[in-house]
Every structure is written in C-alpha cells, then in structure tokens.
Amino acid sequence: MPGVNTVTADIAGQGTDATEARAGAVPSIPDLVTAWGQGWVVSRGAPAPVVVPGGFRVDVGLPGHRSRHVLHSYDAGSLSRLARTLVQPGSWIKISGDRATLRAAFPAAWRMDIPGWLMARPLVAEASMRAATTEVAGTSMPAGMTEVAGATMRAGVIDPPYRLRVDLDGRVIVAMVLDRDGALAASGRLAPAGAYGIVDQVETAVAHRRRGLGSVVMRALAERAAEDGVRTGVLVATDDGRALYERLGWTVRSEVSGAYLPEPDRVS
Fold first, then answer.
1. Which residue has the higher pLDDT, 59 or 154?
2. How confident is the model at residue 12 (pLDDT cuts 50, 70, 90)?
3. Which CATH class is domain 124-230?
4. pLDDT (tens digit, 9 = 90+) per residue, 214-241?
C-alpha cells in the first residue's frame, strides 16, 4: 500500500500542498479533489496518483477500471481531447462539474456514471460519540469494542444490541458495527491525506438499514480522525449518501460527474 508521503510527493507541486489545510481558510475545490485522490489510493491500496494537466491519473489496473483521470480544472476542449486520446476499455474520467458538460464533450462510446457529490466538513471530537464509546453497561466484550449507546441511533431501534469497533488498517481508520452474533452490520474507512481525512466505502448491510448505523460509523471515523489531528473531512457521495451526510453537517462543494469506456463484459 503506498504511503501518504509518497502520494503527496507525486501529486503536489501545483502551487501549494493540498494536504495541508490552512487554518481558517475554506479549502478550494482543487485542494479537496487532490486530497480526495491521495486518500482514495491509500484506502484502496492503489498506485500513487500521477499529476496530469488539471488533476491527476490513477492506474487502478482492475477489470472495468484500468485507469482513472480526475480533473478539477478543465474546459470543453481539454475534456474532448482527453476522451479521444483514451481508447482502452476500462478508462474512466471524473470531473468536479456537471454531467451535461461531460456528456457534451465526450464521444458516444463513453457511458455516464451515476452522479456524485464532493462534500467536506470540519472534523471535531464529538462529545456524544465519546460518551457512547466509553460507557459499557456491565458487559464483558473483546478489547476495542463497546456497546453503541441508544442516543446515537434512532429511538427504539436497538434490537439486537450492536457493538462498535474502531481499528487501524495500516494508516486507514476502520469503523465497524457488529450485531449480536458478531456479523458485520455497517462499516466505513477514513484514509489520512495530511490534514485531510478521506471517507471511503461507508456501507450498511441490507438487514440493518434505517437503524442509524451509518451515522454511528461516520461519527466514529470523525472522532478518531480528529483525535489524530485531521482537520477536514472529504468524501464523494452518491445521491442516497448525500442526505445522510448533510444531516451530519457535511456540505456539498461540487457535483462530481464521471464517464467510462466499457469493457466487453461490463454491464452498466
């Protein structure tokens, strides 16, 4: 897994180091997009980003996702030229901008991805989560686990009781909510990128949805990251996730639009 310092060296160099959130300053879209790229590769174990005009490229190397260009600065001409240059199936392009701009610039062979939203918020240690993860009501549990307090979830929906575990996977913070039987009910990851923390892969199992577990995971990630000195959280949300994150204080900074060249066996 590439280290954060290596990633910073590869994609910094466009005036300022995007991983250093300046005190009192509102992060720019280029800073947020660049930090998101740095954290995404750490979370996914992908190769370090490479600087390209207007953004960065990640050589992901997976079926259906061979390479990914992510752009924060562009115009219609540069988008069209890039789309015509990339001919390998499995190539992706994402922009901080609207779908109409992307679609208009791309040849018909490119397929549109689902909409996304670049979101950010300051990270602070939340007293409610600290209390929830330190008060264990006379229960013997494995090290690193605590009961999730009722106050952190929607009232009356705490059957069976859940347990919250926060661990490190290398430098990535991993929050997991387990059910009574120890099965994974919800989880999420947060990868550091300097003073930014990039939230990734927040998921709740179908049988455990609408019980507030996504909020528990997000608060646990924010709490741990803030304690580690991370000042600003960054994520890219789907339409469904956006509603949850807005309730937790996250703010939309930009639409994120993507398109890809499908591989022969890829079903959209």
1. 59
2. very low
3. alpha beta
4. 999 999 999 999 999 999 999 999 998 9
Instruction: Decide if 57 contacts 67 (C-beta within 8 A).
Output: yes
Q: Burial code of 172-207, b = ≥16 C-beta within 10 A, e = fewer?
A: bbbbbbbbeeeeebbbbbbbbbbbbbbbbebebeee
Q: What is the rounded average pLDDT of the residues 20-34?
A: 79
DSSP letter string, 63-93:
TTBSEEEEESS--HHHHHHHHHH--STTEEE
Mean pLDDT of the chain: 82
Give the sign of the dihedral formed by CA 128, CA 202, CA 49, CA 94. negative
Q: Where are the beta strands (DSSP E) in 104-263?
A: 111-112, 116-122, 145-147, 163-169, 172-178, 184-193, 196-204, 232-237, 251-260
The encoded tokens of residue 126 equal 């939340």
**Alpha helices, H only, the chain:** 4-11, 29-44, 76-85, 99-105, 127-132, 213-227, 239-247
Q: Where are the domains of the chain?
A: 4-115+255-260, 124-230
Which of the four pLDDT bands, split at 50, 70 and 90, describes residue 22? low
